[in-house]
Design goal:
Strand order of the largest sheet: 3-2-1-4-5
Organism: Neoaquamicrobium microcysteis
Strand content: 15-25%
Protein name: DUF429 domain-containing protein
Radius of gyration: 17 Å
Order of helices and strands: EEEHEHHHHHEHEEHHHEE
Length: 252
C-alpha cells in the first residue's frame, strides 16, 4: 500500500490529510510545501488543490485543464479559477507592506496577464490571492523532476464530482464567502460514504486550517489514492506539459 496525502492551502500554510500504511488518516498543517514533503515518505503520492504547470501564454478559460473540468460542474464551475501565464504568476512576488501595495501589484500582474493571454485577460482577485502558493509549488516542480509523477494537481469540486458518480454536488460549499452548512454536510456524507471515517471528517480541523480546508484535503486524499491505484482520470488525457517540462492536468 502506497502512502498518500491530500493537500489544500490554508491560512497556516498547507493542510495535509495523510494515509500511511497501517495507520488511520491524520491531519496536520505545515508552514511550507517543502516541510510537508519532508514529513511524508519519499515515495508518497500527493494530490494538491493548487495549479501545477504554468503556460507561457494562456488561452480562453485559462490553461486548458480548467476549461475541461468546468463543463462537468454545473453551478459549481465558478470555483475553478482561470490560471494565467507563468510570467503573470511570477510578476509580483511581494512582500507587500500595505493593502494598497497589494492591489497595485494585482493591477501590474493583470497587465502582464493581458500581454500573455489570447484573448487578453486580467487576473481575478481570488486567483491573485493564491499566487504565492502557486509559486511555491512551481519552484519545487521545476527544480525537482522527481516530483512530477507523484505530486499531482486536483480540484475539490472536480474530485467531489468524480466521487459522486460523475455528478456535480447539489449544494454550494460557500455562499458569498461564508460557509454553507448544508453544502458542508453534503460533502461530509459523501466522504464518509467513500471510506473516510465519519468522525475524522467531522472533527475540528487542526490549528491554522478551516473546516472547508479539511474537507477539501480529504477529497484530495481520495484522488491521491485513486492515482496510486492507477484509477485516477486526468483532464486532459493525456496530460499537457508546460515549457519547463512540468506535467499539467487536473486529476479526479
Amino acid at each position: 500500500m502506497t502512502a498518500c496525502a491530500g493537500v489544500d492551502g490554508c491560512k497556516g500554510g498547507w493542510v495535509a490529510v495523510s494515509s500511511l500504511p497501517g495507520e488511520l488518516p491524520q491531519a496536520r498543517v505545515f508552514p511550507s510545501f517543502a516541510d510537508l514533503l519532508e514529513a511524508l515518505p519519499g515515495d508518497a503520492v500527493i494530490a494538491v488543490d493548487m495549479p501545477i504547470g504554468l503556460p507561457d501564454r494562456a488561452g480562453p478559460g485559462g490553461r486548458g485543464p480548467e476549461t475541461l473540468v468546468r463543463r462537468h460542474l454545473g453551478a459549481r464551475q465558478s470555483s475553478v479559477f482561470s490560471i494565467p501565464s507563468r510570467a503573470a504568476v511570477h510578476a509580483e512576488p511581494g512582500p507587500f507592506a500595505s493593502v494598497e501595495e497589494w492591489y497595485a501589484a494585482h493591477r501590474r500582474a493583470s497587465d502582464v496577464a493581458r500581454q500573455t493571454s489570447d484573448p487578453p485577460r486580467g487576473i481575478s482577485i481570488q486567483a491573485f490571492g493564491i499566487f504565492s502558493k502557486i509559486r511555491e509549488i512551481d519552484a519545487l516542480m521545476v527544480t525537482r523532476p522527481d516530483l512530477h509523477y507523484r505530486v499531482i494537481e486536483s480540484h475539490p469540486e472536480a474530485a467531489f464530482w468524480r466521487l459522486n458518480g460523475q455528478r456535480a454536488m447539489a449544494l454550494a460549499k460557500k455562499i458569498k464567502g461564508m460557509v454553507n452548512p448544508p453544502g458542508m454536510e453534503e460533502r461530509c456524507a459523501l466522504l464518509a460514504l467513500c471510506g473516510l471515517p465519519a468522525g475524522f471528517v467531522a472533527a475540528a480541523p487542526p490549528r491554522g486550517a478551516a473546516q472547508d480546508d479539511l474537507l477539501d484535503a480529504c477529497a484530495m486524499l481520495l484522488v491521491a489514492q485513486r492515482y496510486a491505484r492507477g484509477e485516477a482520470m486526468p483532464f486532459p488525457d493525456p496530460p499537457l506539459t508546460d515549457g519547463r517540462g512540468v506535467p499539467m492536468a487536473i486529476w479526479t
